[in-house]
């Protein structure tokens, strides 16, 4: 199977004379897999997501290579890569109806007419389980709850049928019940559309619900990587064991499921 994205000896600093946020990262992302990147705040996991998506801020210094053998070309943001950010309010235009925001992505990348793009937006808002999508698409972000805004952000991220969906701490700003709903939604959408998923989280329990593989980050490096079952049940590193020990209720229920959802 061809590799979708290949990261080799990646190093990133946010300014030329600044400390390295990432160093020596080697990672392959396979088509259709669900890969979780976990680690504490400041470990470099979000920097990796931004680097892969080509969204590092101006002034950042990047060395090493990110290749795309699965595309045979450089990826197009929005078209090949969908990105769901931690703060849905920050990723949505506050003065534009949410349906228009989703439709604009579809029109820009799929060559749809405005009428077709509006219809796709309505379909996507229904797919992400928003009630009354015809009414919701005329709403502004401030009129929606945090969970509803994140569902809109997910709809926009998948509007152009991307190959890779990156969810960067997409549940951390939500309460526990809504977190579970968003994780279930992402799992379903990825399965239905055959997308590759890169799930960034500090929560190993959430990661284990979604991922085929887990990469553990610490201080800008990968300290452990492997199949989810192996990482959760037989961690090789003390740091990974500490992340597992921090999970509340770890002994009360299985931390992962080896079964993929049915599409």
Q: Could you please describe the fold and organization of this structure?
A:
It is a single chain. The chain has 263 residues and is α/β, with parallel strands linked by helices. The chain has a domain at 92-161. It is built from 10 helices and 9 strands. The chain has helices at 45-53, 88-91, 98-110, 114-127, 133-136, 146-157, 176-193, 204-210, 228-233, 238-245; strands at residues 5-13, 20-29, 34-38, 61-67, 81-84, 164-168, 196-201, 213-218, 221-227. A 6-stranded mixed β-sheet has the order 5-6-7-3-8-9, with helices on both faces. Helix 7 (176-193) links the parallel strand 6 (164-168) and strand 7 (196-201). The protein is globular. Residues 248-254 and 257-263 have low confidence and may be disordered.
Work out the number of β strands: 9
Rounded to the nearest angstrom, the radius of gyration is: 18 Å
Number of helices: 10
Terminal Cα separation, in Å? 22 Å
Percent range of helical residues: 25-40%
Fraction in beta strands: 15-25%
Main sheet specs: 6 strands, mixed
Structural class: alpha/beta
Overall body shape? globular
Mean pLDDT: 90
Biggest sheet, spatial arrangement of strands: 5-6-7-3-8-9
Which H/E pattern describes the elements?
EEEHEEHHHHHEHEHEEHH
Uncertain runs with pLDDT below 50, 5 residues or more? Answer: 248-254, 257-263
């Amino acid at each position: 199977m061809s590799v979708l994205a290949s990261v080799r000896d990646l190093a990133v600093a946010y300014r030329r004379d600044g400390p390295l946020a990432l160093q020596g990262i080697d990672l392959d992302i396979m088509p259709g897999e669900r890969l979780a990147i976990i680690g504490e705040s400041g470990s470099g996991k979000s920097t990796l997501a931004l680097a892969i998506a080509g969204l590092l801020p101006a002034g950042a210094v990047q060395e090493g290579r990110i290749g795309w053998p699965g595309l045979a070309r450089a990826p197009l943001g929005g078209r090949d890569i969908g990105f769901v950010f931690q703060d849905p309010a920050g990723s949505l235009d506050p003065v534009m109806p949410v349906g228009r925001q989703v439709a604009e992505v579809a029109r820009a990348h799929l060559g749809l007419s405005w009428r077709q793009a509006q219809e796709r937006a309505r379909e996507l808002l229904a797919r992400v389980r928003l009630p009354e999508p015809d009414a919701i698409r005329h709403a502004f972000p401030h009129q929606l709850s945090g969970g509803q805004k994140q569902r809109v952000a997910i709809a926009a991220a998948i509007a152009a049928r991307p190959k890779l969906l990156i969810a960067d701490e997409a549940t951390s700003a939500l309460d526990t019940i809504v977190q579970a709903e968003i994780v279930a939604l992402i799992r379903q959408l990825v399965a239905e559309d055959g997308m590759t998923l890169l799930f960034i989280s500090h929560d190993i329990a959430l990661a284990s619900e979604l991922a085929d593989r887990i990469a553990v980050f610490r201080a800008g490096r990968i300290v452990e990587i492997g199949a989810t079952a192996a990482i959760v049940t037989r961690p090789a590193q003390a740091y990974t064991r500490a992340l597992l020990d921090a999970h509340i209720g770890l002994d009360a229920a299985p931390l992962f499921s080896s079964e993929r959802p049915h599409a």
